[in-house]
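Progress report, Aim 2. The chain analyzed during this reporting quarter is listed below.
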Amino acid sequence: MILGVVMVGLSQPVLVIPLLLVYAVVVRRRRRAATDDHADVVRALPEVVDLVLVGVGAGLTPRETLHRCQSWLPDPFAEAVAGALSRAASGATFADALDRGMTPLGDRVRPLVAALNAGERDHAMLAPSLLRVSDEARRQRRVAAQERARRVPVAMLGPLLLCVLPSFALLTLAPLILGSLSDLGVVV
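Predicted structure tokens for the chain:
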């Protein structure tokens, strides 16, 4: 595609700039969508782990816990868990169904999936491992929030330069310059 744009650009340079701008906009939208999906997972993961902890603490198996709390799960997790439970109901093993169902959510959910699979397979105590997963998920969410907070001053730079500084110049410097010019006898 880029080679085609360059070939067209060599023959008609006026077309290159709009085509490159369109390409840049498309690439940026794709990256932003991927980043938003990742942010949703990081933001919702601690609550998902807490819901699973409540179910496991009540004595339910991981499969029963996911089935019962499916309606309370946040958006990216609800679809993934629904897919995993339907695969498990259609004959796949719970571990395989959970791995496949949670794969679209990324690597952040791997510790949760591993803990649930271990609990289902070995009937192991899930609470300690889920508490570690919850602590790590909360730490990741805190780090992501700090990164977003660090970007705020950079995002504010555009409005500052485009709105505040010109108005400052018009309201404070322009009267001073006009007054100085009138004191010097220059007609304004």
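Residues 90 and 97 are 10 Å apart (CA to CA). The chain has a mean pLDDT of 83. These observations will guide the mutagenesis work planned for the next reporting period.
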